[in-house]
Amino acid sequence: MTRFEYVGQRSPLVVVLLFIFKVVPEQPQNLSCIQKGERGTVRCTWDRGQDTHLYTAYTLQLKGPKNLTWQKQCNDHYCDHLDLGINLTPESPESSYTAKVTAINSLGSASSFPSSFTLLDIVRPLPPWDIRIKFVNASVSRCTLQWRDEGLVLLNRLRYRPINSRSWNMVNATNAKGRHDLLDLKPFTEYEFQISSKLHLYKGSWSDWSESLRTQTPEEEPTGTLDVWYMRQHIDYNRQQISLFWKNLSLSEAKGKILHYQVTLQEVAGGKATLQNITEHTSWTWVIPRTGNWAVSVSAANSKGSSLPTHVNITDLCGAGLLAPQQVSANSEGVDNLMVTWTPPGKAAAAVQEYVVEWRELHPGASTQPPLGWLWSPPYNLSALISENIKPYICYEIRVHALSGDQGGCNSIRGNSKHKAPLSGPHINAISEEKGSILISWNEIPAREQMGCILHYRIYWKEQDSNSQPQLCEIPYRVSPNPHPIDSLRPRVTYILWMTALTAAGESPQGNEREFCLQGKANWSTFVAPSICMGVIMVGVLSVRCFRQKVFVLLLALRPQWCSKEIPDPANSTWAKNYPIVEEKTQLALDRLLTDCPTPEEPETLVINKVLHQVTPAFRRSHHPNWPEKGQGVQGHYTSEEDTGYSASSPPPPRALTAETGQGVDLYKVLGSKGPDSTPGNPASPSTVLPVDYLPAYEGYLPSNIDYLPSHEPSITDPREELPQHISLSIFPSSSLHPLTSSCGEKLTLDQVKMGCGSLML
What is the pTM of this model? Predict the structure, then answer.
């Protein structure tokens, strides 16, 4: 091929000249012949070499014994194979045959080298067919593979493998006659079988592989033991919950389909099985007493039998603090792996017999617990690679146990293989007030939105309609109670609150907002200091006698009226109203008897004379509260129009009581003294009646301190004292005392009256 290029003003002009050269055919190479099966035809192939670009004819020639010649021409332009259409019979398998191919075109010809062979060299047997397998007595230990083959086949080769394996097991069988025993098959395993054949040990070629036969071997009794782990949880003071977990046996150990697991629970001291249970699951939970030592055994069963039981003694896995591993950490090793490391438990490191690393997907608030994973580690190994069921963006709770006999210690940590900021924030569901602070409760972020292990929660708050930066409180995840208290809010101020969560990768978006206003109950601590100070001052003041007296008087003045109990008026007694004549006769007889036989030990009978309603009281605090000057009688006191007994100009009674005398006067002091001239028919004159001793019922109250009422008699007191020492206040309401009726007569002696604190009885 030659290329010419012309460059003009507009664009270059390219001219390509292609020269094709016709050549003589090349010598064919690699001539070979084959016959498929005993009844097949001879077919030869070769390499024709370079293309001659001319019509070329290829002629195949085969010479056999007895000068037999077979020839066939190929008219195809690209001919490189030919089928002679003849069958070489096996009568003389050692007979020699020679094959040659010749290429001819208009320029010349070329022939291949002759290829000599026998029937055994070129015949390739057909693949075996009708393959089947037989298990004697349904046992995998005696397995026979059977097939059908051509009659001249002398050698077979077998290959088989489990379905999930990539490598084949090869077996050669000579003169097998369509039968071979296999002794190394595994029970309850699906296998694939193929067979190939050959006519001679050294000559000829192997047939193609037969079609695959797939079958499952029979089951056998399990040989392995279960890997069992457990968790222990207290329910109350006398019960505990035991949760058992075990892993499936491997196929080589199960040797069949596991139909169920048998769990046996027994108390060590008794030795007798307490409970036997059958389950199809790989976990089992039961409630047992907290007292006593307990042990469990678990075994797996298939159609052929049961495995050996695994025995476990139930102990407190975290009870021995000295055995707890130290410095537990979990680091990511790729997307699906976690590397857990720890250090020995200090002085108890030599006692550790083995370590157990357990992990569980952390699902806060989930109703069903996720599956538990665990693995065993020898005491000299202080790390473990967790790769079973590890997913990215999922937080796992990892616990390392150190076991020594029937004791154990543990330590835990959380970890994840990959993390990022949570997709959502916590949802505040309730805010309540308690003792001047608020309690915030929230719902956990869904596990699929946590995107790893949460390290902290943050609670934000700020005043409503405020542009200031919000305040926050950060709570570590492990020690975060729900609800959480906040005591820095001001009362009667509306706040906006929300929450976020943080992982090692960042902070989540804020959750929902809630408004809250603290009602403002005062904090008890704000009253402690003032109360203590006030108490100290009061103790100091009351320790002085004069202050103590004044405080006592003030308290008496402030005492309400209902605190005093009414004292009844004896004039209103039923006896005085119904039996006046009997009383007078009885009194006269008694007076006559006392006069005739005086007894010095007997007290003088006091006669209470009936007082008229018109008597003016000697003390009326409602109109004249001022006290008289020292030494003066009660003069100029107010007298109403209805009071006609005494007036402002009347002289004071001879026995008027003073306000400063120290003598005590009984409430029912005698109003008239019985003298020699006093008779039942001659009552005491009004001049002998003390107005202070009886007050009408409608005139206020009786004085509580009658001894201190003013008197006309002067008293000797300190001239420096201008005010009375005591303030007389009424304690008896006027409604409690009533005058005697006219039917009672003029006399009423105290020996017929019984007086109490709350009532008056005759």
Answer: 0.53
pLDDT digits 0-9 by tens, 103-151: 888 888 889 999 998 888 888 999 999 999 999 888 888 889 999 998 8
Task: Record the tokens describing residue 251, joined without a space.
Answer: 């196929």
DSSP type of residue 123 = E
For the chain, helix, strand, coil in percent to 5 are 15, 35, 50
Under 8 Å between Cβ of 555 and 547: no
Spatial separation of the C-alpha atoms in residues 412 and 402, rounded to whole Å: 12
Q: How far apart are CA 255 and CA 141, in angstroms?
A: 12
How distant is the alpha carbon of residue 286 from its chain centre?
A: 21
Which numeric CATH code is attached to 29-123?
Answer: 2.60.40.10
Query: Which top CATH class is 125-216?
Result: mainly beta
Burial of residue 203 (number of CB atoms within 10 Å: 0-12, 13-18, 19+): middle
The residues spanned by each domain of the chain are: 29-123, 125-216, 228-314, 321-415, 427-518
Taking Cα atoms as reference points, which of 360, 420, 412 lies closest to residue 386?
360
Considering only CA atoms, give the Rg of the chain: 63
Report which residue type is found at 384: A
Report d(CA 317, CA 410) in Å as an integer. Answer: 7
Dihedral sign, CA of 18, 21, 25, 27?
Answer: negative
Measure the CA–CA gap between 206 and 202, rounded to whole angstroms.
11
pLDDT in tens, 9-31: 555 555 555 556 667 888 899 99
